[in-house]
Amino acid sequence: MTTVSVGPAGLPSVGELLRDWRRRRRLSQLDLSIQADISTRHLSFVETGRSRPTPEMIIRLTEQLDVPLRERNTMLLAGGYAPAYPQHGLDEPELASVRAALRQVLAAHEPNPAVLINRWWEMVDANAAVAALTDGCAAELLVPPVNVLRLSLHPDGMAPRIVNLPQWRGHLLSQLRRRAEALGDQRLRELAAELAGYPGGEDHSVSASDVVLPLRYRAGGQELSFFSISAVVGTAADVTVEELAIEAFYPADAATSAALSGPSAGSLSTS
């Protein structure tokens, strides 16, 4: 039986965590040692627990491995050090300017839908135009925290009105699985397993006439077509801020643009 060393509070050791992230990034010890400008021998000693890394060394290695801030704090704790990156609630004063900027972006995107989501695709905020997409969804799916992937693919959510459901479902599940693997996040793995059990199939093909895979959606007796763009705060030094993303939907054709901005736009939220 293999003996597993653990860090404080039952955490795996810092060496094990580093090794897991290195393998997740598909790097050899030599690759990482060159990138971090340390000896392969030292890195090997850190991974096997023969050498205790300093907090500066942990941060250097995690930067090279592109480890998210949440997991960097976990690794520092496993090494016996205090977390280096703060984590504030979005409603706390420290994030007031970020919160205001994000809400300004959401509002400026109207009449097109846009949502602010966290690491687990939970809706943190949204603009008024999102109502055109959520109208008709089961009330329990709209109880906070609303998971936008569950809302999209659940048979009592948006799924019945997604015209190209197999393609859109395949796209979302691929995104979710990649993020779960990249982050090693069990919560995301469980979400992926749940959503994979919903009906709708998976089709990863794209029509030759499409520049990007659109979301084709029935609303107010019309078929709307959107493509999406994700944006993040590029210089985040706070765990909460790093995990936020704005998912903005843009009209993929002139008919959708006219439907959203025209005088009858309000009727789109009526199924």
Please outline the major beta sheet.
5 strands, antiparallel
Low-confidence stretches: 1-6
Query: How far apart are the termini?
Result: 60 Å
Helix and strand composition category: alpha+beta
Please give the count of helices. Answer: 12
Helical percent range?
40-55%
Observed structural traits:
single chain, 271 residues, alpha+beta, 5-stranded antiparallel sheet, elongated, disordered N terminus
Provide structural commentary.
The structure is a single chain. The chain is 42% helix and 11% strand. It is an alpha+beta fold. A five-stranded antiparallel beta sheet has the order 2-1-5-4-3. Strand 3 (215-219) and strand 4 (222-232) form a beta hairpin. Helix 1 crosses helix 3 and helix 9 (165-183) packs antiparallel against helix 10. The N and C termini lie far apart (60 Å).
Q: What's the quick description here?
A:
With 271 residues, the chain is an alpha+beta fold. The protein has helices at 14-24, 29-36, 40-48, 55-64, 69-78, 96-108, 131-134, 148-153, 165-183, 186-196, 239-242, 254-261, and strands at residues 114-117, 123-126, 215-219, 222-232, 245-251.
